[in-house]
């Protein structure tokens, strides 16, 4: 089956963020998906749906995403609010009480969208309750293929600034998935950069943001001097089958769309 994966929309109903226009960028992504990938089954959005968690931002975001030809699977990032988001978006019946964490049963296997939100913090958390749900869900899946999405990375990605705000209890998370051959891939957001690798034998991919990109680690930078890099946004086309996963990140619009040219080169 085919999925579209987008991350870190940082949507707000008006104005720019760090010289980038979240409405124009999202509209470009929606137009691209509708033109080229309307045959996908879902569009997974791996958190930071809104820049600031307000009812107005989520209402406008939901209106825009209604234009998508395919259903979306919303997730929370550190910028999001579970209750405000859930008030505007339908989530599968499998969703946990109190967390935006759920599974989607597909012919290829299970898509698990995890909730790593720690309210009020940049870093994420994976508490005992969410960990128990994941363990039980993976146990019940037996040997069915599982594709995991989560906002915060459970391990360092070689990005010093972002790695300081990764998932608390990352080791707990990794212990749950380690050794399960049916866990095919981890798809993470949050870092606004492309990174791929393996952790404890499980392959992972981090995806660029729909809105703005974080510079590479060198030359060194910090949040006080942070300026987005001049790199185009990407989404990914994911093929999820019982015995394979392919992830193709691709540029859905030029960098210039929705920018005022203030990024660093
Ligand atoms: Fe983000």
From TrEMBL:
Gene3D superfamilies cross-referenced by the UniProt entry: 3.60.21.10
Calcineurin-like phosphoesterase domain span: 1-193
Entry keyword NADP: no
Domain of life assignment: Bacteria
InterPro entries to which the protein is assigned, alphabetical: Calcineurin-like_PHP, CNP_phosphodiesterase-III, Metallo-depent_PP-like
GO function terms (MF aspect): 3',5'-cyclic-nucleotide phosphodiesterase activity; metal ion binding
Keywords: Hydrolase, Iron, Metal-binding
EC number: 3.1.4.17
Stored SUPFAM superfamilies: Metallo-dependent phosphatases
Family statement: Belongs to the cyclic nucleotide phosphodiesterase class-III family.
PANTHER family: CYCLIC NUCLEOTIDE PHOSPHODIESTERASE CBUA0032-RELATED (PTHR42988:SF2), PHOSPHOHYDROLASE (PTHR42988)
Name of the protein in question: 3',5'-cyclic adenosine monophosphate phosphodiesterase CpdA
Annotated source species: Phaeobacter italicus
Gene name of the encoded protein: cpdA
